Amino acid sequence: MAPRNLDEVSPLDLKSHLLCERFINLHSSLLKKGHRVSDLRQLARSGNARRRGVRLTWIAFVAFFIWSLRPFLDVVVKQALGVKCILPNNYFVWEATRPLADCRICQTDVLYLDNVTRKDFEPFAYSYRPIVVRDAAKWWPAASDFDYEFFRVLFEATPGAYDSVEDECQFLNFKTDLYSLRDVFQMPEERANLSAGTRPWSNCHADVLKTMRKFYEKPHFLPEDAEHSHVDFVFMGYQKGAYMHLDYISRLMWQAQLRGHKTWRLNPPPECEDICPSHTFTVKPGDIILLDTRQWYHDTYIKDELLLDELYLIYNRMEQISKGLILTLTYRPLIFPTN
């Protein structure tokens, strides 16, 4: 029995209708030839059983195949877990997925402080405002003792120090042709003293950190709950600094300028450019800068003098840049600001 109006029926519905009619006609024909309904049901059940048996056989085969590959898969999983990033870090992806900034964070000027105490600094400790504390690191031993030769001797004398940078930490060859910390400390002396560019690396070797931290301390004005990270960064070089970027880190940051002069340029996020101003300022030896590098786009430039740049306490990194020195530490607040 066909539908009354074929123009109102889709091709798929029409095929389904015709197929249903064929089954009805076939069923009627078998009954007329003496077959019983119970026989037809039994025939359908046996067909389903055969198909079910085939499916179970395939499932058992696949399960056995996977089980036989277990030793190989175990090795693959362990290697994958040992890789820091299965997909490499990509600044384009980070930028595309970062949350929109609250433009209230950048509607302020750079704040300069002198002879600040912990109590004086308390209102600014966890703010997003760029802050420069003058001469706060001026008398640290690191200001006079940290240089290219200090770190070369330290890493050469510490077993596993180079490997820890490559396997557990990070080396960044900003705009240079040096691709490992070994390359940096194997440079000819004339290049070590004159080569432009910044060579940042992080330190997470326990013995290296223990030695380094004898030469600097947490700034006296930071909150008592400020924690020292297990990783310090060092930046070494001059002239060419970091390109304009955000830092994709989880904490606030401070940097201590130990030698040389470093110029910072800050830009607000694109969504805040019509509201917030840009800033350019220079820090001198002994200054400490506090900056939320997760919110401010920033680049740097070092004048024609080598500088050892920054220890972060993240409020935890340490940068060295080579006739000048910056020590950058960051601290982690117990409570982040909500506004």
UniProtKB/TrEMBL annotation:
Q: Which SUPFAM superfamilies match?
A: Clavaminate synthase-like
Annotated GO molecular function terms are: 2-oxoglutarate-dependent dioxygenase activity
Q: Which InterPro entries match?
A: JMJD6_ArgDemeth/LysHydrox
Q: Gene3D superfamilies in the record, alphabetically? A: Cupin
Coiled-coil spans in chain: none
Superkingdom: Eukaryota
Q: Kindly provide the name given to this protein in its UniProt entry.
A: Bifunctional arginine demethylase and lysyl-hydroxylase JMJD6
Give the originating organism: Cimex lectularius (Bed bug)
Taxonomy, top ranks, is:
Eukaryota, Metazoa, Ecdysozoa, Arthropoda, Hexapoda
